[in-house]
Amino acid sequence: MKVKTILVSQPEPKIENSPYFDLQEKQRVKIDFRPFIHVEGVPAKEIRQQKVDLNNYTAIILTSRNAVDHFFRVAEEMRFKVPDTMKYFCQSEAVAYYLQKYVVYRKRKIYVGKRTFPELTPLIKKYKDEKFLLPNTDKVKPLVPETLNALGVNWKQATFYKTVVSDLSDLANVYYDVLVFFSPSGIESLFQNFPDFKQNDTRIAVFGNTTIQAVEEKGLRVDIAAPTPETPSMTMALEKYIEKVNKGKK
Q1: Which of 107, 146, 147, 190 is the most core-located residue (most Cβ within 10 A)?
Q2: Tetrapyrrole biosynthesis uroporphyrinogen III synthase domain spans which residues (predicted)?
């Protein structure tokens, strides 16, 4: 069956040269964007109930831009002036650069990993006498606490923000040829919003092995998967599939 409409379960890209826009134009398909999940901040009152006193920490471990935003939001809500001596351990360059929204970069002690959390551990180990706070989501990958425990450092994890299912009720009677998912949370949202969802002719595109697993656990069919050696990005995987099924169909 020909692909004419695609729903991507993420916010619309803010950059003009997004490959999704190129795909839409080149393949003459309609692509809509709608976050199936969103992030909500945990109030300072609830963070205090987690026995978190920001005065007790000398270093912050930041694994995402959300973590950056919500750490500084909570600090403001708690009227905590973040000291200039605070050390920041950022999982990637993207997270470190995002810190500039809140601090004067060159005047702070910022340590940057390459991309994955384990790649940050040599830096944490080097400063193992610090008192580390990990402001994070309610859905933390087990690898993170396991890695920190193995290092034997003084650290505490606290839930500063939560991943929440978005209300998609307005999509109840809207049909798309392809649904695109990037996380198991997106699949969870689909079934919380539409418990009786039947795949039928809808094609499902997924990114990553954990998402594939979540789809299959729900008894659904994976039609398009990324990344693969041939199609390392979702847009490349979509384009390859569309070219195959739309070929010769006007």
Answers
A1: 190
A2: 29-235
